[in-house]
Amino acid sequence: MVPPLHPLDVATRAGTGIAVVAAGIAAANAFTAPRLRAAPVTEPVTVVVPARNEADRIGALVTDLRAQRGLSTLRVLVLDDDSTDATADVARRAFDGDSRFALIRSTDAPPAGWLGKSAACYRAAQHATRLMNPRYPGVLVFLDADVRLAPDALAAAVSELRRVGADLVSPWPRQDAGSAVERLIQPLLCWSWFASLPLAVAHRNTRPSMVVACGQFLVFDAAAYYRLGGHAAVADSLTEDLDIARELRRRGSRTVVAAAQHLASCRMYTDASALRAGYTRWLWTAFGSPAGSVAVSAVAALAYLLPPAAVLTGRGRTRAWGAVGYAAGVLSRLTARTVETGARPNVRDVLDAAAHPVSIVALIQLTAASHRASRRGRLRWKDRAVT
Questions:
Q1: CA distances (Å), 249 to each of 43, 213, 225, 237, 334, in order?
Q2: 190 partner at 20 to 30 Å CA-CA among 172, 175, 228, 265?
C-alpha cells in the first residue's frame, strides 16, 4: 500500500505546480512578446509630459525628446502641474528655444472626483488638440518625467502601434533599480504579468481582464483616445494606465504591451521611503478588495515561499518538489528580466532572482501596509491626498 502523502508534501506539490505553470507562461511569452523596432514615421506625433515636482528629472527627458529621430512631425507639451520646485524653469532651459516644445503651467488643484495625474493628463491633452489637425490627429503619447529614451524610441513605439493595428500600445520600459530595496521590488512589476498572462492570447482579444499597460509610456491612436473622453474616463483611478486600457477594450479596441528593452528605461524610486510611498498608494486597489489581496497573497506564498521553505526544512520527496518549485520561480523571474532588458542575465540579475522569495515577502508586506493606510485615510502622493 502506498503511504498517504503528508499535508506539507501535498501543499509543496501544489505550490510547485503553480510555479512551474508560471515559468511555462514566461517561457512562452519570451517567444511571443512584441519588441519595439524603429521605422520612419510620417504622421504627426504629439507628446504630453505631466510633471509635478520633477525638477531633477524633466531636463534629461526633454534632452532625450529633442534627440528623437525618424519622426516627420513632433510636438511636445510639458504640463507643470502646480509644482513647488523649479520644474518649469528647468524645462524651459532644456527646451533651449526648440519651437517643437511648449510649457503649460497649471496652478489648479485637481477637480472634485479627480486624482492628480489623470487631471494633469486630461488638461494637457486638451491643449494638445489645438496643435492637431482634427481630421488627422495622428498619435498621442504620454510620458512620465522619469522615463529615459533612446533616439529611436518614439519612432519604434509609433511604428508598433500601426503595425499591430491597436488603439493603444504600451511600451514597457526597462525598470532600473539601484538600491537593494529597489532590486527586491522593481523586477516584480514586469514579472507579475509576464509569468501569469499568456500574451499571445491577451493580444488577440479585447477582454478587459487580460490587459497590461504601463503609465510611464503610453502610445495612443489620438482619435481613439479622444473618442473615449481621454483621462476623464478614469478620473478617480489610482491605476489610470490599466483602467484606461480596460475602457478601450470595453469599447472593442485592441491594446498591446511591447518590450521597449534598450529603447526606454525608468528608475521610479531612488530610496526605500519613496518606493514604499509609491507602492502603498495603489496596491490596496490591485486585487479588487481586501479578500482579493489575501487570496493573491496566499497563492503567492504557496507558490514562491513554501517550495524554498521545503528545501530548507523538508525531507525526501518534499525537499525534491520544493527544489523544483524554487527553481521554477527563479527561472520565471530571470526570463521576465531577460525580455525586459533585451540582454542576457548578469550576475546581479541572477542574485536578485535567487532572492525571489524575499521579494514576495516584501510585496505581501507592502500590500498589507497599503490596505492599512487606505483604511486610515493616510495615503498621499506628491503632497496630495489620494484617498
A1: 24, 12, 12, 17, 30
A2: 228
Strands across the sheet containing 217-221: 101-106, 71-81, 41-51, 139-143, 217-221, 168-175, 255-266, 147-149
302/296 Cα distance (integer angstroms): 10
Q: Residues 168, 245: contact at Cβ < 8 Å?
A: yes
- pLDDT tier at 1, thresholds 50, 70, 90: very low
Cell triple for residue 51?
510633471
The grid coordinates listed for 5 are 502523502
Query: Among 210, 259, 65, which residue's Cα sits nearest to residue 144?
Result: 65
- What gap in Å lies between CA 192 and CA 264, rounded to an integer? 20
Rounded to 10°, the helix 356-375/290-304 angle is 170
C-alpha cell at 169: 500600445
Q: Which fold has domain 34-178+186-268?
A: Spore Coat Polysaccharide Biosynthesis Protein SpsA; Chain A (3.90.550)
Q: What is the residue whose three cell numbers read 490596505?
A: 371
Nearest 5°: the CA angle 146, 115, 147 is 10
Cell numbers found for residue 328: 521554477
Contact 72, 46 (CB under 8 A): no
Looking only at Cα atoms, what is the longest distance across the chain?
84
Q: Under a CB-based contact definition with an 8 Å cutoff, are residues 286 and 188 in contact?
A: no
Predicted structure pTM score: 0.94
For the chain, how many residues are written? Answer: 387
Instruction: List, for residues 272-314, the tens digit of each pLDDT value.
Output: 889 999 999 999 999 989 999 999 999 999 999 999 999 999 8
Please tell me the distance from the alpha carbon of residue 386 to that of residue 377, in angstroms, as a whole number: 9
